[in-house]
Structure prediction request, 151 residues.
Amino acid sequence: MENKNSATCGKAEGSLPGACASMVFPYVAMQNTNPDRYNQNEALAVGTLFPGLRMPFFKETQARMQCSNTALCELMALDFAITELGLYLDTHSNDTEALQLYTNYVTLAKEGRQRYEATYGPLQQTGVSLAGGYTWLDDPWPWDSNKGGQK
Prediction:
């Protein structure tokens, strides 16, 4: 089959590297103000904070979603909910209830991250003190430590 280049794509086609493809119009679900929400842990597991946006292809993600470190899972869930609420607030800036929830989740995530890092160490390279030099590869690693009852 001969590859088409972008100069030969038809009116109903879009340019892809080395080929043309049919143009599509994606469906974007519109959300009302103050829609129902999952809690942040369930939202992380199902792939959306909003039940109205839940898609069937997330079923595989749900089957694989397992967290053994509950403190880290909680942070992941909060960060996921913060991102989802932030995207929602981009189009619903007058939803004061969502804004308050967003603010609460940001506060919880900040506090949780501080507690987590005090117990297990930094979550990111930027979370370490550089006063001692390049130390993030030094022992003990989190799984070598017995902090917090983990081994």
In short: The first helix runs from residue 40 to 46. Residues 40-123 form one domain. The chain is about 40% helix and 5% strand.
